[in-house]
Structure formats: structure tokens, C-alpha cells
Amino acid sequence: MAVVAGVLLMAVTACGGGSSSGKGTDEGTAKAKDSTTQASKQSVATVSISPKSGATGVDTSGALKVSAAKGKLTDVEVKDAKGKKIDGAIAADGVSWTPSTHLANSTKYTVHAVAKDADGRESAEDSSFTTLTPKNTFVGYFTPEDGSTVGVGMPFSIRFTRGITDPAAVEKAITIKTEPAVDVEGHWFGNDRLDFRPENYWKSGTKVSVSLNLDGVEGRDGVYGEQAKTVKFTIGRNQVSIVDAKKHTMKIMQDGKVVKTLAVTTGKPGYDTWNGQMVISEKLRVTRMNGDTVGYGGEYDIKDVPDAMRLTTSGTFIHGNYWGGDAFGNYNASHGCVGLRDIRGGGDRALPAAWFFDHSIIGDVVTVKHSNDQTVSPDNGLNGWNMSWKEWTK
């Protein structure tokens, strides 16, 4: 019996070992509970990005959106393939983000967005997409040239290759910074030309930087800009010249002081010179002037006009004149241009036309007074100064 009891005792002991195994089950339960606790610590916030990852042909405006549910966005970063960031803003309620500018054409972008829930737990989402490649595009041809030094009357003028039907989108994509700072506003002439200028002539020494962020701007339905360029220019010395059509004189002023007075001839009766402020937009050491090009038939065709500077698109110049005889300072004899005494070929640089040509730069102002014609149209050349600031900015 003693032996049987011993065997029974061993069996009980073995059952005791089973009791030890029960203790292991308690540990497993604890681990399962810990796993559940860990899961409960994950953020309940979710991030949504539109367009979906991998999308192609995405519109450059209005398609990119980031939002959060059950939490608030804390960080959104959008970059192109070169690492350039796209500016944007998280809404005040934290549930959405939108870009502050358009996207570029044919460009791959990556998006990284983070949101936090009420308990401060973070959730992130990543995505990428590629914008559309437009079938129709436009560019803007601008003046003055990058790196140039220009006169105090020079606007920044850009003419587009396609008529613009969304001028606000185009204008928003052009940023102008100046040093020293001055308010610069744009004005549209028709739907294909946009000029920028300050209220008054630029101050000498002002540095101007223009950012043309037009790549991806939908200027009209289905037509997108393709320029991304920065243009810089500097304002030179202040030179404004005053032509008196009755006195037949021109006073050249620098910083408001007369530095030289020259005899001129302006438009004869029936061909009177425009009144108003005109900006030199082109300098030609010699050029051909043919009446056929400005609607005057075969009245003149001079193949070697010296020292010519353009004042209007319609054909008004201030130029050297070697055929005018005694008209300079005495009477008006031209077909609308302002003439200065010169010799054929312009070889004598001391003569009035040559001197004025050599002392003038693109952007200088020539103002004509007391002519029998009306004031030049603001869009006839770079002549927006003939509009009041109120008219310019309305």
C-alpha cells in the first residue's frame, strides 16, 4: 500500500506541475492585455491626401488638398523632384491644408502630412503624384532686360503670346520686390499686356526684382504658362527732358536741374507731335524711316536716320535730323517726331542729337508740352505715366 500511495503522491505532484502551467496562462493573458493597451495608444487621427498617390495628369490648381479627421494637421510638406517646397497654410481649425500657389506643369510632387488626435498621438501619411503636361501654353515677352540699368520712367512690361482670360491668376503669379521698398501695382492693357509701375517715377538706385512664376498658371481655359524666371534691373540716374513745341526747345534735366537746353523741331501742322510723358523704349544708332509704315504713304523714306530713340509704338521718335535746315529752334517741320540737329552718319558726337543719344538710356522720360495734338495714349509705347494713380490701380 505504501508503494501505491507513493505513486499517487507523484501523480498529485505531477498535477502540481499542471498548476505551474496555469501560472503561465496568467502571463499570456497579461501579455494580451498589454498588446491591447498598446493598440489603444495608436492615434485615432487620419490624414487624407488628394489626389490619390500615383495619380498622373493632375491639374496645377485646385487639385491638391490635404485634410485630417479625428484630429488636427500639424505639418504638411509638399516638394517637387528638386526639393523645392510649395508654400501653403493649415486652416485655423486644423482640419485642412491648401497650397498658396499653383503647381508647375509636368512635375512630380511628394506629400508628407502629420496629424495629432486629442491625446496628442500622431498619425502620418505620404503620397506622390505628377501634374499634367499641357497641350497649349503661353509665355510673356518682357522689358526691360535682365541685368539692365534703366531710366526712372521704365515700367516692367510683359506681353503675353495668348490672350489672358484669368488675369487675377496671372497677376498673382508675378511678384515684384524693390529695394528700397515702394508700392508697385499692375495695370492691364487689353488681355495680353500687363505693365507694373510705382505711383511716381522710380528713385535713382532702386533695385527691382521680378519673379515670373508662370509655369502651371492656367491663363485661359486649357492654356498654361511655361515660364519660371527672375528678372532684375536697376534704376539709374534721374533724367527727364521737357520738349516745348511752341518754343522749339528741349530742356534736359537731371535730378530736377537743367543740365542742357537744345533746339528742336516737332510735328508740323496736321502732323503734330503727341503731348504727354513718353518713355524711351528703344535706341537705334541708325535706322530707316518710311512713311508707308505709319500711314503717311510715300511722303518720306529716309534710309539712314541717325541717333534715333523710340517714344511710341505708333512711330514717334526723337532722332537726329541732317535735312532740316534752319527748322531747329525756329519752326516745326517734322511728321510728328522730335528732331535734333545732326549730320549724315551721326559722326560728330558733339552735335545736339548725338549728345542727347549718348546721354540717354532706355527708360528715360521725354515730356512734350504745348503741341496742338492730344495726349499720347498710355498704351502707345511704355507711356502709362499719362494715367493717374487712381486710374492705374482701379
TrEMBL record:
Q: Where is the composition biased (Basic and acidic residues)?
A: 24-34
Q: Where does this protein act, in terms of pathway?
A: Cell wall biogenesis; peptidoglycan biosynthesis; Glycan biosynthesis
Keyword hit for Zinc-finger: no
- Cite the CDD domains for this sequence: LDT_IgD_like_2, YkuD_like
Q: Where is the active site?
A: H319, C337
Q: Where is this region: Disordered?
A: 17-45
Renumbered to this chain, the Polar residues biased-composition regions fall at: 35-45
- Mind telling me which GO cellular component terms the entry cites? extracellular region
Q: Which residues form the signal peptide?
A: 1-16
**Gene Ontology molecular function:** acyltransferase activity; peptidoglycan L,D-transpeptidase activity
Listed A to Z, the keywords are:
Acyltransferase, Cell membrane, Cell shape, Cell wall biogenesis/degradation, Lipoprotein, Membrane, Palmitate, Peptidoglycan synthesis, Signal, Transferase
Q: Which Gene3D superfamilies match?
A: 2.60.40.3710, 2.60.40.3780, L,D-transpeptidase catalytic domain-like
Q: Where is the L,D-TPase catalytic domain?
A: 239-369
Q: Name one GO biological process term.
A: peptidoglycan-protein cross-linking
Keyword match Signal: yes
List, alphabetically, the InterPro entries matched.
Big_10 (IPR041280), LD-transpeptidase (IPR050979), LD_TPept_cat_dom (IPR005490), Transpep_catalytic_dom (IPR038063)
Pfam families on file: Big_10, YkuD
What is this protein's name? Lipoprotein
Could you tell me which species this protein originates from?
Streptomyces fuscichromogenes
